[in-house]
């Protein structure tokens, strides 16, 4: 009997030791996870602040960028993203690390209002940039004269008015509440539909349509320039296109090989004889060069690729959050990890924009 009791006691002690090891291991894993999350989110916050501050300083301090009115749309977007990194993300990190909302009702209302205003402003700014680019491509001459600083400032004012409409209405009509330990805007279906339409779905549809048109227009221009280049490479009806060279450049083989890629002007020459090509200074006519070569085609392809990457990253980052916003207004309760993941995926778009 004593032997059995001793054996059972030893087994229980052994089990308790194993449980202690598991508890310590679990606690260690949780601490390590929290540390990794804090490190990653801290890097996102710092990158957001530094990247957008550099954009603002570049436009305001570099004269070449400052004199271009359209760049103030980028300043407006960078300012919104910088404020998100400064005011919104740190509070969101605290909310992520705690099991319940601990900062009180005033901070809750400030956080949700700032989040709505700044995130909406960033997205609508991006939409306005697409409108500006489309006008510049579709009506280059007319819009160049209309693209004044006053016009761009009007775009910026429209952006912030729409953003305030999205954020003020819940503050006045449906105030954000800290319920059941959570701080969130009330999930009213009417508000969520019109807010998500203004903040995401509407601007996204506009951007996709306009960037598709810009992409197609750039492709058509590239194809047209390629055909023009093919037509001007040879001689037609006794007319040839070439660039006059200095004697030194004609004698240098490396310069001759690079002339096709470095032409700044094309000159028209009339040939007085059928078998001899003499240039006549009296009829030398300077005409614009068609900047189309392999380097130009690569640049066009790179620009179209950049547009595609930018739109893809934007949709990937924000679509989960706004889908959840509509679903939650219909009674769907996502797990906390999914809610936080969607939110921080959207926030991460803030610093991705700086590098794309």
From TrEMBL:
Q: How does the entry describe its membrane topology?
A: Multi-pass membrane protein
Compositionally biased tracts (Polar residues)? 248-257
Residues that span the membrane, as ranges: 34-60, 72-98, 110-131, 152-173, 193-216, 307-327
Gene3D superfamilies, per database record = Rhodopsin 7-helix transmembrane proteins
Q: Which InterPro entries match?
A: GPCR_Rhodpsn, GPCR_Rhodpsn_7TM
Domain G-protein coupled receptors family 1 profile: start-end pairs? 51-356
> According to the UniProt entry, which residue ranges have a biased composition of type Low complexity?
258-267
What are its GO cellular component terms?
Answer: plasma membrane
Task: State any single GO MF term.
Answer: G protein-coupled serotonin receptor activity
Classification via PROSITE patterns: G_PROTEIN_RECEP_F1_1, G_PROTEIN_RECEP_F1_2
Q: What does the UniProt keyword field contain?
A: Cell membrane, Disulfide bond, G-protein coupled receptor, Membrane, Receptor, Transducer, Transmembrane, Transmembrane helix
> Has the keyword Transmembrane been applied to this entry?
yes
Q: Where is this region: Disordered?
A: 238-267
Sorted alphabetically, the Gene Ontology BP terms of this entry are:
adenylate cyclase-activating adrenergic receptor signaling pathway; positive regulation of MAPK cascade
**Annotated compartments:** Cell membrane
Q: Which domain of life is it from?
A: Eukaryota
Concerning its family, UniProt says:
Belongs to the G-protein coupled receptor 1 family.
| Protein name as catalogued | G-protein coupled receptors family 1 profile domain-containing protein
